[in-house]
Amino acid sequence: KISLNIKKDLAHRVLSINSATLDHTASGTIINRIDNDPEHLIGSLDQIAWVLSDFIGCMLTVVYIAVLNWIVGLAVLGVILILLTIEVVRSKLYLKNTKKEQKFSEPATSLTAEMIRSQKDIKTFGLEETFEAKFEEHYQNYKKQSQKTLVVNEGWWRLGRLVTEVLVSGLVALALVLLDQGVLSLAVVFYVFTNRGSINMLWQSFGWIGQGVATFKASADRIKELFDEELYPSEKYGTKDIKKFSGDITFNNVGFSYIERKEIEENPKNKSKK
Q1: pLDDT bucket at 27, cuts 50 / 70 / 90
Q2: What are the C-alpha distances in Å from 141 to residues 4, 130, 133?
Q3: Distance between CA 178 and CA 242 in Å, rounded?
Q4: Which phi and psi angles does 228 have, rounded to 5°?
Q5: Residues 6+ apart with CB under 8 A from 117
Q6: Who's near 232: CB < 8 A, 6+ residues apart?
Q7: pLDDT tens-digit series, residues 138-175
Q8: Closest CA to 196 of 178, 177, 175
Q9: Which SS3 state, helix, strand or coil, does residue 181 take?
């Protein structure tokens, strides 16, 4: 329902944008922001809500492990800080690459829409090969950026998992050393060992939340741009609203010219060419 309301607001907004601005705006920019961005916006919120309960549960378990012993607590804190640093970097790169991917998708979508609308004209003028070449160029660029987004994101995910396994194994080894020295009881070591997966789950949950926030921000920024009066100014009309009207309308001293007004102002002699 929220997604539908956002789409309705965007459609209303597009209808109020200056016609000249829309003429110079790729149709894919408008299509993607009305059709896709509201879905991504709501989908990211759903993703965050879905993993939030897991995140809270894992956080409570990790906090309890830290409370059992101050040495183990410092080790757990260090592990979490390292993993969160990796995740912050990954989320920033994901946001950056996602925005680039969306920019590449807009001209591809625009060309597709234009091709469908102008199919008869394209065939009439024999422009099939030209459009096919353009089509391939735009979608190749979009595919390359999509692949880059996927590879970079997956690479950082796998780096985080590798670091997690190493650090968690080190944490278990530390607990065993402390057991051997009589600092920890066997029950505490057993609890740390059996719940070591909570640290990994905590990191993954945080990662999903970070990715959801990045997706939300990317879509929200693109939606808000359409309401920016500097980027997409509204159509300006008169300030007077006549409720009742009777009589005739007469146009006096009306001229028409293909010459730009600026040219007429610079050279008044151009008026004779009207």
Answers
A1: confident
A2: 30, 17, 12
A3: 86
A4: -80, 115
A5: none
A6: 13, 17, 18, 21, 25, 225, 226
A7: 889 989 999 999 999 999 989 988 998 898 889 889 98
A8: 175
A9: coil
